[in-house]
Amino acid sequence: MENLQTMKWFYLFYFLHSNWLCGFFTNNIDVAREGVAVDSVFGLLSVTLFLNAFTLGTLSRFVFQMGLSIFETFQTEALTLEVKSTQEAASPMAMTAAIEATSCPLLQHLAFLDFSELGRRGADRRAPAFSLSQPGGHPHTFNQLAASSLGQITSLTQHLETALAPPSDNNNSPPVTTNKPDFTGLRDLTGGAPPRPAAAPKRSEVAVLLDRLRGWLERRPLLGALLTEWPDSRPAAALADGRPALWVVSGLSALGVASLTEDRYGVAQRHLGPLLRALLELAAVLERVRRLAGCAGRGGGGAPVPRLASGLRAATATALFRLTATFGPHLRSLGLSDKELARLEPYRLYTEG
């Protein structure tokens, strides 16, 4: 299916450039040129052309995906980082420092992956996350982990909300009219010419022509299909960087559940309210993405939303189920509003979904 969706670009390239390519081969290699012209409509409707393009495209895509999977399997190794705050460990291999290493995306991703594994490891591995700094007695480690993790969830939610917002059409907005002062007949005190009002900035003629050209192309049946943005393409682009958020949801929920029996100082409970609030917002926006993907699929077009959206919905729902089941009797003490508590009630009663 992915190959069929990308074949339109092959046909466009074939229609524009195949004539001189065929001429190059026939002039330099002893190959006879037969059949209809390749840059004609009948040339594009050739069954042989379609079968060759589909077979070679599928094969090349399979080889590329297989090579990418092998590279990811053998060249990427999960790291086991120190669960210490940056105040206690200056090493860049500390989890808190690696999570904030925006200059090294690979290290940052591996740190989030290791963070998601904290819930599946033993209590000894999680113990430093719930500890207090000495001297001082401050929960620096968990505060830094929670701040970076909640930032990932909030950032993804905001990007998805921006992608789901309808695009603003600036071309249809009414022109802004301004009352220009009339300086006719006035002279300045030195006897010079009257001052001229500042001219309003004008759009470049090239930009206006490009907008008109794009509008004309979008009204053409074939070219419009190539230039029109798919309904779910913007959410799919926003989800492209959502893998750390999936790891964060799993890691934070696991730490929250484990804190009930392992957190002796209560350093994690103060973050449960913001965590539940962030998870509810993410679940709501992911549901909108799912509905948009369903509408795009029923409409007969549109690229499918990546499978990461399904994984994020499942991870978010699992996190909400686990947290509400663990802290159900104490949800009202977490500073949540009545509306948020009502949205958590289906998860507490296992009726959501």
TrEMBL record:
GO cellular component: nuclear membrane; nuclear pore transmembrane ring
The keyword Protein transport belongs to this UniProt entry's keyword annotation: yes
Molecular function GO terms recorded: protein-macromolecule adaptor activity
Alphabetical keyword list: Membrane, mRNA transport, Nuclear pore complex, Nucleus, Protein transport, Translocation, Transmembrane, Transmembrane helix, Transport
GO biological process, one term: mRNA transport
Transmembrane segments: 9-29, 41-64
Family (UniProt): Belongs to the NDC1 family.
Ranges of biased composition (kind: Polar residues): 168-181
Highest taxon listed in the record's lineage: Eukaryota
Subcellular location: Nucleus membrane; Nucleus, Nuclear pore complex
Protein name: Nucleoporin NDC1
Protein source organism: Amphibalanus amphitrite (Striped barnacle)
Membrane topology: Multi-pass membrane protein
Region feature (Disordered): 163-202
One Pfam assignment: Ndc1_Nup
